[in-house]
Amino acid sequence: MALFHPRKVSRLRAWLDARRGVKAGRPLPAYLADKLAVAQRKSPRVGAPPYTLAIQSDGSVLRVPQSVEPPAPLALPLDTDLRLKRGGAAAEELRRRGAAACEQIARCEGEARALGLERHELGNRERAFIQTHPVVGRLARLVWGLRFAFVALSVGEVAALSVLFADWFGLDIVRADVIYRHPVEAFGVLVAATGVFLASLMLAQKALDFEHPRTALATGATLLVGGVGLGWMRGAQIPESGWQQAVIFMAVTIALPVAAAALKHRAAQASISLGAWRKLEREGRTLGRRMALIEWRQEMAERDLATVVAEYRKDYQEARAIEARVRCAWVRWLQATEASLAEFRLAYLVRLRRSPLSASTATALVKTAGLVILVLCALSACARAHAHEDAQVHAILLCDRSSSAAEFSCSANTVLDAGRWWADEATLGGTFEVWVIGDGIDIPRLVSETYPEHFRPPVSESKRAWRQAFEARLGDKGGTVPTNTGSAIAEALWRVSRRLNEAGRGRTVLILASDLRQVTPGMWDFERHVPRPAEFIAWLRRMDLMLEMRTGTELTVCGFHSETPAGTSRSTAASYHRTRALWEQVFKAWGVKARIGEDCGRTVALGGE
């Protein structure tokens, strides 16, 4: 607060003190050196001053820069602020975490590159396999189809041989109870048929192995002899059958094992191909899982590194902010001390040049001075009372919550920031109100606050408690601000201007948080068409909406954006400039000077300057 900042000594105090110094016979340099020593008791206790004050022989004050320049913050090690604030152990731990995160990221990137090469090589292998086996998706069906055909042929051949051997053993396999009546013979028939078929199948497989031609020729001859014998035996079992039936049975007996062997061989080859493809798929899934794990580890390491960097940034910014505050305190003290020394020097020189007076004259002068001082004090009290009233701040925030301005021009943060600005400015009293723009002159008032005239001791704690309660109320109200209430800006300005004119003495501020897109039902819609300024001003005169604001009222327009919210007409640069030019002409016709901007916080601060 400005109340506790270093202040320059008053002229009266400097004059009285200089009179005592002249009477004591103190030289001017020594006298000013004593005042500088007394002022140093109230200097800041932390940091180093940007310069020092030195008293010259003629009593002038000279600024002496520091002989040792402080090191630049960017030239210091990165963890200097962290070590000063948290200690060496915490700084080393944070540095270790950062180094570990960097190493983990580098390791994960290397592993990811290696896995990328493996995946590329695996892709080449898959493409080569697909080129070699163009119907990869049918391999499984082909394998199961070949196996089913092999089983069907095998069962058929075993059944045919079983019928042949059953006739040899004299069994009638047509009867259903043959297995129960002759279990040994039935089992022997099944074993003989299966054995003969397996032997024929093995011979057929060897016969189809063309890599060993001698073995294939020998086994082929054996299979041919066995097939001829079995075919002749089958034909002999059929009465009145000729040689044609015997030849057919011989061909079938030889062809069935050869076909079964070929199917088995083809099924084995298809199964090998399918196994190779599934192996490639398993390798791809394994590489995918490994890549996902590496990406997760890299993400976690990057998150840890971001946390470490954020802590470094936070400590650096806090250290720079503290240094700026300390420097500002030193500059304020130095400026106030330099001004006070100049006042002391001027009073000392004026007092020194005065001629000595008699006792009666001095007494009369003292009495006259006392009377003048009493009169000045009375006048000062009256002036302070009027100044107190004139220093009050009456502010009104006119909030546009239409569909095009609700979250861009006047959000809950805008209401809270405007209230904080008013609380900082109105240290000697005032009022703060928030009105919401509607579709006419009948608009609702959302907030009404009055700055307390007196605070109970301790004053600082009472002010802090009131400020916190005020911001809490603003936050609650800001969260319940209605939306889509209308955008009759000119009508709302006419309404709140009358309210400001009724405010007491002091500073009046009107803050319009709007995108200036006037919407009067049945008349204007600036989102679709911006009229000419003369036409709009003529309408304002006809509707008697011309503002008559009190002299000195500050008008600030913020939230004037070029965005296009959902559900509104598209905004263009041409409509933006036409809208701004129109309202500038309107404000000029009203006789007010307005500052138009987009950022409410910066625009209000600049308007206060």
How many beta-strand segments? 10
Biggest sheet: strands, sense, closure?
6 strands, mixed
Average pLDDT, rounded to a whole number, is 76
Structure class: alpha/beta
Quick summary of this structure?
With 609 residues, this protein is of the alpha/beta class.
Q: Any chance you could write out the topology, listing elements then pairs?
A:
Layout lengths: L10 H14 L3 H12 L11 E5 L5 E5 L14 H7 L1 H45 L6 H31 L8 H4 L1 H25 L5 H25 L5 H111 L5 H32 L2 E7 L12 H14 L4 E7 L8 E7 L7 H21 L9 H13 L5 E7 L5 E2 L3 E2 L7 H10 L11 E5 L14 H18 L3 E3 L3 H9 L1
Helix pairs in contact: 1-9, 2-9, 3-4, 4-9, 5-7, 5-9, 7-8, 7-9, 8-9, 11-12, 11-16, 14-15
What does this protein look like?
This protein has 16 helices and 10 strands. It is of the alpha/beta class and 609 residues long. The protein has a 6-stranded mixed β-sheet with strand order 5-4-3-6-9-10, sandwiched between helices. Strands 1-2 form a two-stranded antiparallel sheet. A two-stranded antiparallel sheet has the order 7-8. Helix 3 (80-86) packs across helix 4 and helix 11 (412-425) runs antiparallel to helix 12. The longest helix has 111 residues, at 243-353. The relative contact order is 0.08.
